[in-house]
Amino acid sequence: xxxxxxxxxxxxxxxxxxxxxxxxxxxxxxxxxxxxxxxxxxxxxxxxxxxxxxxxxxxxxxxxxxxxxxxxxxxxxxxxxxxxxxxxxxxxxxxxxxxxxxxxxxxxxxxxxxxxxxxxxxxxxxxxxxxxxxxxxxxxxxxxxxxxxxxxxxxxxxxxxxxxxxxxxxxxxxxxxxxxxxxxxxxxxxxxxxxxxxxxxxxxxxxxxxxxxxxxxxxxxxxxxxxxxxxxxxxxxxxxxxxxxxxxxxxxxxxxxxxxxxxxxxxxxxxxxxxxxxxxxxxxxxxxxxxxxxxxxxxxx
Length: 301
Known about the structure:
Blueprint: E1 9-11, E2 17-19, E3 36-38, E4 44-48, E5 51-55, E6 58-62, E7 65-68, H1 82-92, E8 97-100, E9 103-107, H2 128-131, H3 139-158, H4 163-166, E10 169-173, E11 176-179, H5 180-183, E12 184-186, H6 192-201, E13 205-210, E14 214-219, E15 222-228, E16 245-250, H7 257-261, E17 266-271, E18 275-277, E19 285-290, E20 297-299
Helix pairs in contact: 1-3
């Protein structure tokens, strides 16, 4: 991991925005259009090409990035002031997110711990459909963690899922740490590898994506509700993105109340009980049963 979390976007003298992927181009599209400033505030920035450098721990890969010029600072509230935004998440989600040196940890509760305060619907055993419902964590434990994870996911999306930015976050579960890229995945990508790792190592998986249409389905005579994540088409317009699709299911429509209220939002859910269909080994769908509205959180990009 690089020691640098760079600024992902800069703006040239003509007002054109440039992502960090343009820095290694020859010629660079912003050459001749200097000076550059931060994509989120007027602070002046420079660019640095990707390179390797040595350190006490070995060779470090430094990705191309924009960085503040010496003696300058971001404006307060700038979305690309990484340290300020990460510290803000830890401060606003105290108890769910903590700073540990140069890292930020999401503190996961025991997601399989039964609690006396759970509603009776979480313990229904009348049929196979209700035995699949996966809510065992109390509302008071899960909501702060979901909200903290969503804020981290939103920050990383703002950084275009940059590896250096993602590398600053991790999840802590039962005394072990999980790299963020292994713990939290975007359903618009192929989530197969992360799904298999979570099963193999027994840790929860967080999935987030674009809310899709909620449909009424049935299993035998029992109706249920299903939401499949929207995904962009493949390049060239041929079908959808590769990999299994993430699906949320519930016996009650009320579980999707936040999505009903704002269908253009993104959602995030965390569980150890994602299941593959038709099998965990070769899934076409990765399903999670929920039964309360607070088992997922939503936000607007």
